[in-house]
Write a structure and sequence with these properties.
The structure is a single chain. With 214 residues, the chain is of the alpha+beta class. Helix content is 27%, strand content 31%. The strands form two sheets. It has a six-stranded mixed sheet. It has a three-stranded antiparallel sheet with strand order 5-6-9, covered by helices on one side. α2 (41-51) packs across α3. The longest helix is centred in the first third of the chain and has 15 residues, at 3-17. It is elongated and about 60 Å long.
């Protein structure tokens, strides 16, 4: 038996001995920094990851290592118990650590108050709530994670005869993205803002409603 055949046999035996997923990198949960009150930030993020996996995964992807993802709990708008996510630079500059505001999620029991409300003064609010409750709740949650507010915009009307008594409205969430934060005392909690970022308008749904008059 020549050396080439011997080498191939050992290679095959080594391959057979490996587990099927040996070449798959298993995800490693990140240890969370921040200020989470009486609870650990690690336990809070694990709970949020099970309830809102899409949003937590999005925050983690937008804050790649070696940057540091941190949490801070507290009371937000509408007296909501919630968690702020920030992404911090791995190194300080002149004793100050700079970061970027990522978004927020509600703590258990604050989900309903967390939702961004529709404009009270809009003539479309009541019908949207009645006709599209699930769609509105989903959009209201998504907008709230960005600390946004709603506008209801009149959309393009359908000229067809069947749709003459209807019109379209767009649900616009407006918020600030890229808000730059700073941490001056090393607790991985925002001590202020360097920049308020840029305003963003995002359409979270288009809905048909009945006109009040033909």
């Amino acid at each position: 038996m020549n050396l080439l055949k011997i080498s191939l046999i050992f290679l095959l035996l080594g391959t057979i001995g490996l587990p099927a997923n040996a070449d798959i990198k298993q995800p490693i949960n990140r240890l969370m920094k921040g200020n989470c009150g009486k609870r650990s930030c690690d336990s809070i993020v694990q709970n949020l990851r099970s309830r809102y996996p899409k949003y937590v995964r999005q925050f983690e992807q937008q804050c790649p290592r070696p940057k540091i993802l941190s949490l801070a709990t507290g009371v937000g708008e509408r007296n909501t118990q919630q968690v702020w996510f920030n992404c911090w630079e791995s190194r300080k500059k002149n004793g100050t650590r700079y970061g970027t505001y990522m978004g927020i999620l509600p703590l258990l029991g604050s989900e309903n108050k967390f939702l961004t409300p529709l404009p009270i003064a809009s003539p479309y609010t009541a019908e949207l709530k009645q006709r599209y409750p699930q769609e509105i709740d989903r959009a209201a949650f998504q907008c709230a994670t960005k600390s946004g507010n709603f506008n209801i915009l009149k959309g393009k009307e359908d000229d067809s005869l069947a749709e003459r008594l209807r019109q379209r409205v767009e649900l616009q969430c407006y918020y600030f993205a890229g808000v730059q934060t700073l941490d001056e005392n090393g607790d991985f909690k925002s001590d202020g803002e360097v920049s308020k970022g840029a305003g963003v308008d995002e359409i979270l749904g288009t809905f048909k409603i009945y006109k009040s008059q033909p």
